[in-house]
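Need residues for this backbone.
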C-alpha cells in the first residue's frame, strides 16, 4: 500500500466549556481537554486501533498531547512532539506559555524525547504563514519517513493548512473536533481518502458546534 497519513484535530477544550477561562489562566493559550474532550480523544483512538500507523506526531500544546496520548494508548505507540504542526495564533506576538518539558515528561510517559523535531514555531505569524508552515512540516515528515504511515494530531487551522497544502485542494473544508482526515499518496501526489470523519464519536453535536472552517 502507498504511504498514508491521518490528520486528527484535538478534542474539546476546557475554555470552550468555560467562557472566560483564559482571563485568569496561567497558560491562556494552552487549555487542557474538557471532560467530553477526553472522551472524544479516547473514541478517536479506538477508531484508529486497527489502522497501520507507524508514527504519531503531535503539536506541543497540552490539548494535542492529551489527544495524541489517548490515540497512542490505543495503538501502543510513542508520541513525537512536532512544533511544526503547532497552533496558528495570528493574535500573539511571542511564543505563549505551554506546559514545561518536565511536567510533560511526568504526565505523558509515551512522549519520545529522542525524536528530533523538524519544524519550528515562531510568533508573530499570519494565518497564511501558519498554513504554509504546517503544510511544509507535513511534506518534510512524509519525505523523512517515505515508507511509513503517519498520524498527525494538531489544531483546526493547521489541519486546513496540511490538507490543502498536500492535496492542492482549494475548496473550503470543515474541521470538527476529533475529526479524521485520511490522505494517501499516489503517482500524482496526495489525494483525500476520507474528509472530516466524526462517525466514531458518541456525541457529534459538540464536535461540530466548535468546528473550524478554512
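Answer:
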Amino acid at each position: 500500500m502507498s504511504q498514508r497519513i491521518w490528520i486528527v484535530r484535538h478534542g474539546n477544550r476546557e475554555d470552550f466549556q468555560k467562557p472566560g477561562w483564559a482571563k485568569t489562566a496561567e497558560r491562556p493559550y494552552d487549555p487542557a481537554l474538557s471532560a467530553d474532550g477526553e472522551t472524544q480523544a479516547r473514541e478517536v483512538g479506538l477508531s484508529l486501533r486497527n489502522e497501520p500507523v507507524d508514527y504519531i506526531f503531535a503539536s506541543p500544546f497540552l490539548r494535542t498531547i492529551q489527544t495524541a496520548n489517548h490515540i497512542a494508548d490505543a495503538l501502543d505507540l510513542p508520541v513525537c512532539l512536532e512544533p511544526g504542526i503547532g497552533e496558528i495564533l495570528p493574535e500573539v506576538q511571542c511564543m505563549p506559555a505551554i506546559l514545561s518539558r518536565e511536567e510533560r515528561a511526568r504526565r505523558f510517559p509515551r512522549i519520545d524525547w529522542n525524536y528530533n523535531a523538524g519544524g519550528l514555531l515562531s510568533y508573530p505569524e499570519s494565518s497564511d504563514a501558519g498554513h504554509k508552515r504546517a503544510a511544509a512540516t507535513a511534506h518534510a515528515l512524509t519525505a523523512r519517513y517515505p515508507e511509513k504511515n503517519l498520524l498527525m494530531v494538531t489544531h483546526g487551522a493547521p489541519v486546513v493548512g496540511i490538507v490543502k497544502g498536500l492535496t492542492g485542494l482549494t475548496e473550503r473544508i470543515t474541521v470538527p473536533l476529533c475529526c479524521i482526515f485520511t490522505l494517501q499518496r499516489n503517482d500524482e501526489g496526495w489525494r483525500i481518502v476520507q474528509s472530516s470523519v466524526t462517525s466514531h464519536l458518541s456525541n457529534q453535536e459538540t464536535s461540530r458546534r466548535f468546528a473550524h472552517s478554512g
